[in-house]
Fold this protein.
Amino acid sequence: MRLDSAAIEEFKKIYQEEFLEVLSQAEAEEMASRVVRLYELLARPLPSERADAFEKSGSSIMLEVPSAVPEHTTDLQQKVSSQESTQSP
């Protein structure tokens, strides 16, 4: 996220007041962007909260679940079984 120059200047001022250190423009831009990104991550709803909201909305999703045994596996098993039965003494 790109911050405007006024936001960067405000960040530099606050940082200097708190830490008694002057930041360069590049340092301030980088640090302020990181702070904003951290806030964005922390402000997102938790996965459980998103699931609850989804359930309350009454929406549903249809998922296609593959069969437990793929078709080609079953064919292979049949071939092996037939070979075993012909080779049995």
Remarks:
- Residues 25-43 form the longest helix (19 residues).
